[in-house]
Amino acid sequence: MKIADAGKYVSILSLGVLVACATNPATGKRQLMLVSEGQEALMGKEADAQFHALYGDFSDRGVQAYVESVARPLAAVSERPDLPWTFRVIDDPQVNAFALPGGYIYVTRGILAHMNSEAELAGVLGHEIGHVTARHSASSQSKQLLGALGLGVGMILSPTLRQGGEALSSAFGLVFLKFGRDQESQADRLGLRYLVRKDYKPEEMLDVFRMLDGVTNAADGDRIPNWLSTHPAPPNRISDMTRIIAEQGSSGTRVGRAEFISKLDGLDFGPNPREGFFREQVFYHPDMAFKMTFPVEWATENEKQGVSSMPSAKDAIVQLTLAQGEPQAAATEFARQQGVQAGSVERGDVNGFPAASIEFEIQDEKNGPLQGMVTFVKHGGRTLQLLGYSTRTRYGAYRSTFTSWIRSYQRLTDPRILAAQPLRLKIETVRSATTIADLSRAWKSPVKVETLALINAVEINQTIPAGTLVKRVVGEIIQ
Fold this sequence. Notes:
Elements: H1 6-14, H2 16-19, E1 21-23, E2 30-32, H3 37-55, H4 61-76, E3 86-90, E4 97-100, E5 104-108, H5 109-114, H6 118-133, H7 136-146, H8 165-175, H9 181-197, H10 204-218, H11 226-230, H12 237-248, H13 257-262, E6 268-269, E7 277-279, E8 282-285, E9 290-293, E10 299-303, E11 306-310, E12 316-323, H14 327-335, E13 340-342, E14 346-350, E15 353-364, E16 368-379, E17 382-391, H15 392-407, E18 410-411, H16 415-418, E19 423-429, H17 436-443, H18 449-456, E20 469-474
Parallel strand pairs: 3-5
Antiparallel strand pairs: 1-2, 4-5, 6-19, 7-8, 8-9, 9-18, 10-11, 11-12, 12-17, 13-15, 14-15, 15-16, 16-17, 19-20
Helix pairs in contact: 3-8, 4-6, 6-9, 6-10, 9-12, 10-12, 10-18
């Protein structure tokens, strides 16, 4: 997929007279709509392909099948049952769920690990289905088009990430398109509608909101759950939903706690160290057997699409990503990109790994002239791109930092780190009444007792009856 250009926007806007008003399938009301259902479906399909390429199929097919078995009946009783609905579990530790236009619904393993019943899962899925049935993405896109803002998210790395970066920018733009409070409230109501149509207990939706609040509090408000960053929730959301349930007389009997929790046995919990992790400023990647040291006191981020770091001034960045081709060819292709003015390619090595490097300048519309250096390193059959750049005026101050960072790339040989494995959930049956505090001590848990309490939706010293299924976290955190 290629990011939409200005010509595409003109073509969409030129159709405004034909599609400016449409009937919302979930509410039956007429509303402004500059994006047709066909265009909406195409955008969702293309964005889904990008996310699927990034995350791949979820390794636990049993969990994937279970989520689909809960989701499809909900979609079937929605106002758009004939959409080609696609439901995916993605291997991401963040507490998140989101919808793409056209019927593509995602839930992360992170949010699954924090829920405690099938009805809670149905509530999250129903909410996301509601965003699709009410065409909230299309509505938000229409407002942006009307303001000539366009789709997607701005990427500071624009010309340097064209091998998939621009497509991912557009895909992530659809996910992080903010919904208004009215749309969130409507999605809640629609989720409740679908929930009770399948006889789920509606009060379980309240437990989802409580869990999200718990995740926020556990992070001291520093990093809210991704689901809240894309789904802004008013403080009175629980009371609003409690009132709606009462007013509508909503009821249901299905909870499915044991059915849901039993499916989580063996699920990865938290970040997977096999995909790389930081200890202080050193980044280790066991699967690819390398390590490198990032600049001191720079903020770091390890994501599926790459590893990046930025100083507090936000006037420079270093980024590690995969590239295509041999180092020499990759460097030459980089230099040929439109808008890039590059010096000659220098061949050499980085700590014994074949490499090719260039310095370059980019005329960036948003940030002005940018200067940087990039090195392509061949390691284990893969080529990696090590990129650092800043504004032209600050490049001289950062050049030695970029060079040191690139030169820190080296082979990882520590056998303990090379053998690192993710933490996992293990489902246990409590044999006698106990508390999470007691269980945490008995288990010598690798995670805090507060984390165990959160994922089990209990207080630390709350009595847990005998026979209850509880989530235990097993494994070792590499220090």
